[in-house]
Design goal:
Number of helices: 5
Strand content: 25-35%
Radius of gyration: 15 Å
Helix content: 25-40%
Shape: globular
Largest sheet: 5 strands, parallel
Structural class: alpha/beta
Distance between the termini: 12 Å
Strand order of the largest sheet: 4-3-7-8-9
Order of helices and strands: HEEHHEHEEEEHEE
Number of strands: 9
């Protein structure tokens, strides 16, 4: 993971003053780093029977798609309101610097699915907690939660449910 860490760029005061944003675009553009992330993510779930990976807009689409491909699972986008064309369910949530809403298609997850929820960074946990509630309402067999980076000082795990296995490749 040191190779991946060496590719993460810190952006000071983004998106607001006082925030140090962990920019993964510098990781994603590096073919070796992208391969390592795909491999390491998939090894966490290789034997878990995962059928769907839910990626959270927008950077969660990148790692989530790679993970779904590596596992031979389907990919489900969790998006901002008005971006999905069919019938959706939605959840409002608080995040580090405001409130937002996330949606998924109502028919995206079924009772036989084993799901990995994926996003790039765990900060305060609000977005992932909302995505978890959405997926949980569709009654899958099991839900895992995964991040590439976790910012432990923000204590985002406290916002996540106790009944989900949470993993992060890198913890700062």
């Amino acid at each position: 993971m040191e190779y991946i860490k060496s590719r993460v760029r810190d952006i000071i005061d983004f998106p607001t003053k006082g925030i140090v944003f962990k920019d993964l675009t510098t990781v994603f553009k590096d073919p070796r780093a992208l391969h390592i992330i795909g491999w390491d993510l998939s090894q966490l779930y290789r034997d878990k029977g995962v059928t769907k990976v839910v990626g959270i807009e927008s950077r969660g689409f990148i790692g989530g798609s790679i993970l779904a491909f590596e596992l031979g699972a389907g990919f489900v986008p969790a998006r901002k309101p008005g971006k999905l064309p069919a019938d959706t369910i939605r959840q409002e949530y608080a995040k580090e610097y405001g409130t937002d809403v996330i949606e998924i298609h109502r028919d995206a997850i079924g009772p036989d699915d084993i799901v990995v929820l994926h996003d790039d960074v765990l900060a305060t946990g609000g977005t992932m907690a909302a995505a978890y509630k959405l997926v949980k309402s569709l009654n899958p067999k099991k839900i895992y939660i995964n991040f590439i980076i976790e910012l432990s000082a923000l204590n985002g795990r406290a916002a996540l449910p106790n009944d989900a296995e949470v993993s992060s490749l890198i913890v700062y």
